[in-house]
């Protein structure tokens, strides 16, 4: 009996041995194997949700990227639905900064002192984009303050993801619950680019733990992501890599960097990638050319497949601006990408119909973004496909 925790090469080999032919992705074999592995207690599974502000959760409880809106985003609600349907899931993670101007307001799991060297990079390269938007940086403040991550679930394990670049002495120092220093994680790598993108796993006693991170010195140091979990309980970790304001080109930017969005997919080791992009490409007088949009999304699909994960596409929620027709054009392109790549597509227009209908149902925050009720509709559409 093969291991239930199969990834793409093992699935392909197993199918060949059994004489099975035909497309495998519409059946989501990798994801189904991951679900079975969780049930059997073999390992955790991961869903990586890649997209724009409508994945990040913009407008869930109030306008913008504040008001703890991440807690109402559809990936968060997807985790809750999996739990309600008999599974075990968590959203105790940070992937990028989701392009929130102040992560503390957008995600109440995060705290750090104001004005003590913490910033969010928006430049290209190591100081810039990764999955979920941009790196969080610490610099110039001495002594460095602590960045604190208090996951919603009790845990004993933290995975810290950081880019390595530059030859100066720079590192994170990790502790838990403001206790003794437990680990030093180097950020040094020469040459840069391309640098490297790595994870460090910190284990501690089980409990309502808070991870503390501070920079070793005043050299600029970069943080890309954190995932927390209870190692004694197998779970489905739902990772929100939404990037407020992102276009398809942003997701396909920085391929020369190990921590660029497309390259970072494999480091997070997902079993399922869900791609929800297009609104920002469409909502302008000169929308992204369809062929260009297809090329960028195809690059993300290819990177996900190369990482050994199943992929699901979304045709975005309808918008109420004068550029709605542009989005319909790109949504048709997403459906075509699904057919070309033999991927399932969740066409959210089937549920939301159009902006006027969705707004009348009380699902929209504004002309571009759903509210928490609208995000619940997206989460349900996803759960109905992947977790019946």
Automatic annotation (TrEMBL):
Transmembrane segments: none
Matching InterPro entries: Ester_Hydrolysis_Enzymes (IPR051532), SGNH_hydro (IPR013830), SGNH_hydro_sf (IPR036514)
Molecular functions (GO terms): hydrolase activity
SGNH hydrolase-type esterase domain sequence ranges: 214-376
Entry-linked Pfam families: Lipase_GDSL_2
Protein keywords: Hydrolase
Coiled coil location: none
Protein name: SGNH/GDSL hydrolase family protein
Species classification: Bacteria, Pseudomonadati, Pseudomonadota, Alphaproteobacteria, Caulobacterales
């Amino acid at each position: 009996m093969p291991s239930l925790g199969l990834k793409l090469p093992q699935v392909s080999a197993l199918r060949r041995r059994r004489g099975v032919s035909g497309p495998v992705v519409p059946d989501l074999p990798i994801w189904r194997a991951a679900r079975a592995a969780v049930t059997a207690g073999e390992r955790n599974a991961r869903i990586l949700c890649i997209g724009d502000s409508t994945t990040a959760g913009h407008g869930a409880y109030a306008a913008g990227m504040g008001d703890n809106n991440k807690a109402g985003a559809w990936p968060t609600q997807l985790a809750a639905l999996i739990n309600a349907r008999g599974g075990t899931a968590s959203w105790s993670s940070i992937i990028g900064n989701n392009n929130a101007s102040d992560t503390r307001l957008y995600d109440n799991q995060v705290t750090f002192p104001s004005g003590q060297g913490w910033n969010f990079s928006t430049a290209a390269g190591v100081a810039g984009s990764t999955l979920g938007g941009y790196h969080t940086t610490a610099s110039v403040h001495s002594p460095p303050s602590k960045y604190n991550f208090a996951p919603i679930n009790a845990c004993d394990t933290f995975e810290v993801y950081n880019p390595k670049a530059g030859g100066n002495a720079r590192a994170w120092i990790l502790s838990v619950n403001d206790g003794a220093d437990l680990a030093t994680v180097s950020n040094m790598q020469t040459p840069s680019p391309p640098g490297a993108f790595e994870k460090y796993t910190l284990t501690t006693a089980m409990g309502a733990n808070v991870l503390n991170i501070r920079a070793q010195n005043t050299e600029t140091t970069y943080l890309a992501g954190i995932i927390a979990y209870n190692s004694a309980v197998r779970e489905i970790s739902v990772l929100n890599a939404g990037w407020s304001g992102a276009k398809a080109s942003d997701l396909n930017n920085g391929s020369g960097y190990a921590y660029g969005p497309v390259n970072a997919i494999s480091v997070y080791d997902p079993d399922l990638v869900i791609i929800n992009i297009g609104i920002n490409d469409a909502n302008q007088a000169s929308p992204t050319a369809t062929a260009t949009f297809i090329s960028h999304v195809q690059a993300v699909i290819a990177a996900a497949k190369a990482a050994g994960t199943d992929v699901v596409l979304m045709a975005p929620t309808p918008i109420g601006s004068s550029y709605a027709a542009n989005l319909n054009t790109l949504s048709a392109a997403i459906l075509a990408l699904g057919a070309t790549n033999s991927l399932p597509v969740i066409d959210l227009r089937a549920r939301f119909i159009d902006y006027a209908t969705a707004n009348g149902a009380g699902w929209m925050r504004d002309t571009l973004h759903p509210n928490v009720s609208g995000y619940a509709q997206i989460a349900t559409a996803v759960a109905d496909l992947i977790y019946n």
